[in-house]
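Lab notebook page, bench 4
Experiment: in silico fold of construct C2
Operator: M.H.
Input chain length: 326 residues
Purpose: comparison with the prior construct
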Amino acid sequence: MVNLSFRPAAFVITVVLCLDSDPSLAQTVVAGTSGAMDPAGLLWKDPGPIAARDLFWGPGRAERLPEGPFTFVEEDSGGTQPKIAVTDARGVTWDVKFGEEAKAEVAANRFVWALGFAAEELYFVRTGVVQNYPGSGRVGGFLSQEGNFMNARFRRRNPETVRTEEEWTLRKNPFVGRRELSGMMVLMTLVANWDIGGTRNTRVLRVTNPDGSVEKQYAVTDLGASFGRMGGRLTPHSKWNLADYRAEGFVEKVENGELHLDYDGLEPGVDHIPLEHARWFAGLLAQLTPAQARRAFEAAGATPEEIEGYSEELMEKIAELQAAVK
């Protein structure tokens, strides 16, 4: 998981390498000096003053918004949601997702970025036109014959942030036993992202920083299965459903020095967090303001009712965590 407010200066980080999920070796590595990739990689970076972060733009900027009209490139047949690739009026290539995940993914992306984990550059585009669309495939229900669409998530294909073919899981990664991984699990439970299991939606990014250094960042990607119901054996999953999100649990209990999360995602057995890790991450979450939460949901194209409902519920869940770990 993973992002990061990047610092061009060199830094030293100690990582725990694991073999078959058993942490056994500590290795100190230096990144940011030679331009070589850190062999262990990064899960989290200190985001600095969280309350000062703009959750509307997140890892992007206003001047980098997708600019229509858009030109069809190809359809992506992978995943469960209809997706296409397009180029915009500036020649930038974007991966475009339609359907119920579009709003949820942008909102979750903003909180991932704000808390110091890796976040790709995403934008919500309310309306637009795709030229040269052939009129077939799974996206047919979201694009008119003229190429008009509504409510889409645009992910920039950024040459400085490349998805690699490397795989990792919540159980097998270089950060097992570290507070960063615990914090990521708290955050995924907070936004009710249930679609993580095995190597599903966990990727390694190769990021080139402004100073030319290269970082290997562990990320949870495709965050669209968020802000609904995690589900379980008797209840179905849902995405971007305010009533379900309000009813979704967050903290189960604190027992024997651990925080038990109400996590019902696809990877079982990852919901017990050392209390000291939970306290550390609760301190980060405490810096988020209600205004920032609203900005994140505004960025996702939420309605006024959704903005208020989701932001209020998220802040209540954060307060629940504070009370549990104090």
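Observations: Confidence is low (pLDDT under 50) at residues 1-38. Helices lie at 101-114, 179-190, 242-247, 275-285, 290-299, 304-325.
Next step: discuss at group meeting.
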